[in-house]
């Protein structure tokens, strides 16, 4: 059970990913962070498919930080699959996006998202938001017991 | 004068126009027939009456003449019988040589004449009218003989009526002659023994309610052959003249004539009523016929007008249906006349209108679809802008920040200043993007219509904005703000912008004062925000509400130039208005007006139509 992945960062923009990682690092929450670059990779990771097939599904991340606008499979679709499968639906998912579009907010919540955060444009705000998120989901929030236990 | 006109027109008989055509035609025909019948009836009745009177008059004259002749003949006959008596030799002898011998002979003749039951007295007179001999017991006035003989000295005739006791007598006079030389007169008195039955027969013979009068030619005595009667009216008018007068039973005409060989006059009186009986009957016929004609005429006119108005009513209903928006209505009138043509034209017109309507609807539909497509594209565009523009901006900001954090100790002042400028510009650009997106989203925003407590809304905005100025004290007063109807999210934006501006532009004053108030106007409520800040020059007022137009530099006061444009757009959506008053350094007042509820109908219509074209709003 050691070395459990704590944060799964799904983000196609490497700059955003770098800044997120940096913000989490500042509060010492980036030790067990995995960054995937699109929705397909994210699903492969969560359901232990493709290049992650050896990982197993009994080690889910503590929180998934999910962008919406991504190549191949977008964030909404990833969210739908996570929340519709028994093995993954209890993983907390936080949408982190630049979009304030109402339709995105509505469909995210109706699919069972745990948080919806709009990325601030300025780095100060962004870093603040990310570190608050990390502290909350990794430290404050009580995650469900893994199914295997 | 002008005020009287409507009254006059109300009284005018030509207000027929107020009636329907179905009523007008029968009424006109009825009136026309009535007038015609009245004129024709009156004229023809007058003619018939005149003719009847003429005929009656003629008949009266003829009858009177006939009676006169008839009586003349019997008078002659009687006179002839008397003449035979006067020709007796004994009578002649006595008058030639009157002595006792001849007198007894003559007396004997007179006495014998009494054997005739009609004769009640016989007398013999000399040429001077003196009585010589007499027989019979009837008494007469001593001078009556002279009266009888007066004016008729040498012929046989019947004298005037002579009433005595209960009876009426008439003298029959004959001249006694020898070789055509008159010697004296013989008078035989006879009573009138006419029976009522005889008179009745006469009257019936004449008919028309005729009444007979006989009188003496001097007018001294009148009788109906049964008893003496009063002289009839206008008896003095003379003979052979028609006269009119009134009797208790009505108007009469009368005609008098002398009877030859006598001193009698016959007068016939006819009742005008009876003479005019035909004319009266004609009048009744005319009236009956006229009424029948008027009723029939009006009925036929009613049928005809119904025949006209029924299809017209069909047309009218169909037209009303079209006016009400039902373009499917048509009329079925199978006629070949003008009305049929009208109905055909109407139907083809309806078809054209329906086609045009459908055409228009399909056009509107396709335009709406196009607009919706454009709208979707715009949405996609603004989505991209909001997402894709932010990401690189965030990267710039992030890397500049990292640079500052990681390498600050190696930066000189200029490098620090440049890094700070990068960061502040990124912040500005982020705000610009947010404002622009908010502004463009407003276009498709659905405007709600709720009652809003404006006072509470403004107070909330003041509290929210005061938090962004932690180091500055503002003296903000809020007056009474009436409730209004509108979209509270949008009107909050209005307050935030106006109050925010007031705070921003008065923030450099030591005693920044802001007043928020309102006043009720005829058309709506005018709310205002007044500050004592920097103000602006009114000659640039037209730029105030345009996007990206600013009246102050970024150094003086920060801003994107979108706020007031957004406010104007929100008020446009509420059918409201906004204006500002200011002068540099004197502060500014921003007034915005929201229309009253009574203008809501228009507003709703507008909102509905704009909604149906713009599609579903999706802004939170």
Please describe the structure with a list of short key phrases separated by commas or semicolons.
heterodimer, A: 149 residues, alpha/beta, Rossmann fold, five-stranded parallel beta sheet, 5 strands, globular, B: 620 residues, alpha+beta, Heat Shock Protein 90, six-stranded antiparallel beta sheet, 19 strands, rod-shaped
Question: How would you characterize the overall build of this protein?
Answer:
Chain A: It comes from Puia dinghuensis. Chain A: It holds the Pfam family Response_reg. The complex is a heterodimer of chains A (149) and B (620). Chain A is an alpha/beta fold. Chain A has a single domain, classed as Response regulator (Rossmann fold), CATH 3.40.50.2300. Chain A contains 5 helices and 5 strands. Chain A has a 5-stranded parallel beta sheet with strand order 2-1-3-4-5, sandwiched between helices. The radius of gyration of chain A is 14 Å and the shape is globular. Among the domains of chain B are: 55 residues; 170 residues, Heat Shock Protein 90 (2-Layer Sandwich). Chain B contains 15 helices and 19 strands. In chain B, strands 1, 2, 3, 4, 5 and 6 form a 6-stranded antiparallel beta sheet that branches. In chain B, strands 9-8-7-12-11-10 form a 6-stranded antiparallel beta sheet. Chain B has a 5-stranded mixed beta sheet with strand order 14-16-17-19-18, with helices on one face. Chain B is rod-shaped, with a radius of gyration of 66 Å. Classes of the chains: A alpha/beta (149), B alpha+beta (620). At the A-B interface, helix 1, helix 4 and helix 5 of A face helix 9, helix 10 and helix 11 of B.
């Amino acid at each position: 059970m050691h070395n459990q992945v704590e944060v799964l960062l799904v983000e196609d923009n490497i700059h955003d990913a770098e800044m997120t990682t940096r913000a989490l690092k500042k509060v010492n929450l980036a030790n067990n962070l995995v960054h995937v670059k699109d929705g397909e990779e994210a699903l492969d990771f969560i359901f232990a498919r493709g290049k992650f097939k050896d990982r197993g599904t009994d080690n889910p991340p503590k929180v998934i930080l999910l962008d919406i606008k991504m190549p191949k499979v977008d964030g909404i679709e990833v969210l739908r699959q996570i929340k519709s499968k028994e093995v993954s639906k209890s993983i907390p998912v936080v949408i982190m996006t630049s979009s304030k579009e109402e339709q995105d907010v509505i469909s995210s919540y109706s699919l069972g998202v745990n948080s919806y955060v709009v990325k601030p444009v300025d780095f100060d705000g962004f870093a603040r938001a990310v570190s608050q998120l990390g502290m909350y989901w990794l430290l404050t929030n009580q995650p469900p017991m893994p199914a295997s236990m | 004068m002008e005020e009287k006109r409507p009254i006059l027109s109300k009284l005018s008989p030509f207000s027929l126009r107020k009636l329907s055509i179905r009523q007008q035609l029968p009424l006109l025909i009825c009136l026309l027939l009535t007038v015609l019948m009245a004129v024709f009836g009156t004229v023809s009745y007058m003619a018939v009456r005149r003719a009847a009177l003429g005929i009656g008059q003629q008949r009266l004259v003829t009858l009177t003449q006939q009676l006169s002749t008839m009586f003349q003949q019997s008078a002659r006959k009687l006179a002839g019988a008397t003449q035979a008596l006067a020709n007796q030799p004994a009578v002649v002898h006595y008058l030639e040589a009157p002595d006792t011998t001849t007198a007894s002979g003559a007396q004997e003749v007179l006495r014998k004449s009494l054997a005739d039951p009609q004769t009640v007295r016989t007398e013999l007179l000399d040429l001077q009218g003196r009585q010589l001999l007499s027989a019979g017991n009837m008494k007469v006035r001593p001078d009556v003989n002279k009266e009888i003989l007066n004016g008729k000295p040498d012929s046989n005739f019947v004298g005037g009526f002579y009433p005595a006791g209960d009876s009426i007598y008439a003298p029959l006079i004959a001249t006694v002659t020898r070789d055509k030389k008159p010697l004296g007169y013989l008078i035989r008195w006879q009573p009138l023994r006419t029976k009522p039955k005889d008179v009745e027969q006469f009257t019936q013979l004449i008919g028309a309610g005729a009444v007979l009068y006989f009188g003496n030619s001097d007018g001294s005595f009148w009788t109906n052959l049964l008893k003496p009667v009063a002289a009839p009216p206008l008896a003095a008018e003379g003979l052979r003249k028609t006269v009119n007068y009134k009797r208790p039973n009505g108007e009469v005409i009368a005609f008098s004539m002398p009877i030859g060989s006598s001193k009698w006059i016959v007068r016939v009186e006819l009742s005008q009523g009876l003479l005019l009986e035909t004319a009266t009957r004609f009048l009744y016929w005319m009236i009956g016929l006229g009424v029948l004609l008027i009723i029939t005429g009006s009925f036929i006119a009613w049928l005809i007008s119904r025949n006209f108005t029924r299809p017209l009513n069909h047309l009218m209903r169909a037209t009303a249906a079209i006016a009400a928006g039902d373009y499917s209505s048509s009329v079925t009138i199978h006629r070949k006349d003008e009305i049929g043509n009208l109905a055909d034209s109407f139907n083809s017109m309806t078809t054209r209108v329906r086609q045009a309507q459908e055409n228009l609807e399909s056009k509107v539909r396709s335009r709406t679809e196009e607009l919706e497509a454009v709208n979707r594209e715009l949405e996609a565009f603004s989505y991209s802008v909001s997402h894709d523009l932010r990401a690189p901006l965030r990267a710039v900001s992030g890397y500049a920040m990292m640079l500052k954090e990681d390498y600050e100790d190696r930066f000189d002042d200029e490098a620090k200043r440049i890094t700070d400028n990068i960061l502040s510009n990124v912040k500005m650009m982020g705000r610009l993007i947010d404002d622009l997106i908010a502004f463009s989203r407003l276009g498709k925003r659905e405007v709600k219509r709720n009652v809003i407590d404006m006072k509470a809304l403004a107070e909330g905005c003041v509290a929210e904005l005061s938090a962004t100025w932690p180091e500055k004290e503002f003296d903000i007063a809020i007056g009474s703000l009436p409730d209004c109807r509108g979209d509270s999210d949008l009107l909050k934006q209005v307050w935030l912008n106006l109050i925010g501006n007031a705070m921003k532009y008065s923030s450099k004053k030591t005693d920044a004062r802001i007043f928020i108030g309102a006043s009720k106007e005829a058309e709506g409520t005018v709310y205002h925000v007044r500050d004592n800040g920097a103000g602006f020059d009114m000659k640039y007022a037209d730029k105030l509400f345009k996007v990206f137009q600013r009246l102050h530099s970024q150094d003086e006061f920060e801003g994107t130039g979108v706020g007031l444009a957004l406010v104007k757009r929100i008020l446009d959506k509420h059918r409201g208005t906004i204006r500002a008053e200011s002068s540099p350094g004197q502060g500014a007042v921003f007034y915005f007006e929201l229309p009253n509820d009574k203008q809501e109908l228009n507003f709703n219509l507008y909102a509905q139509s704009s909604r149906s074209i713009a599609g579903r709003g999706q802004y939170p």
